[in-house]
Design a protein that fits this description.
Elements (H helix, E strand, L loop, with lengths): L1 E3 L5 E8 L14 E7 L11 E8 L7 H16 L5 E7 L3 E9 L2 H12 L9 H15 L7 E8 L10 H12 L3 E7 L2
Parallel strand pairs: 4-5, 4-7, 7-8
Antiparallel strand pairs: 1-2, 2-3, 5-6
Helix pairs in contact: 1-2
Length: 191
Amino acid sequence: SEIHMTNHQPISLQIRADGPLMAAGNSDLRSLLLDLECAASEISTPPAPIAVVLALDVSTSMSGAKIDSVREAAVQVVAQLKDQDLLGLVIFHHSAELLMPLVAMNEAGRLSATRVILGLSVEGNTALSEGWRISAEELARALPSLPGRNLQVVILSDGQGNEGVTAPGALAELAAGASTRGVSTSSIGVG
């Protein structure tokens, strides 16, 4: 389908499902991949490099298609990053772990990140808040050496946190605190 914005530039939207569509009233899990494409804007300066830490939920609630979707999405992020961009990888289950500190996404960095992502396996409960905390700390640690970069934590999870801080309001407060230090947080729901 095509959508027109106020500046009359078309935006193309493609939606792909992992299976056939369902009749109304039926319930089943479906994964969707949204692909947005728009015309290049007339920006005279290139975008600032980014530093992003992916916080990946590898708890047992992510078994099967969910962890496959997380792997696929994370590999796609790696492929889209530029050589000057930085990526870090954090996993969380009953605890959280920095699997890969921030590294440049040159050819070697992309290869290393992809290997780590494809090797993910599931275990334990969901310490979402701990995964977010370690991700934000990795960006904060590197902050002095990253002037002018966009700093982003991206959480990929089914959102079923059951370890540590689990109240949505408390999680929002943590993210708001990081935002005042220049670290943005985004969350992508899986499943």
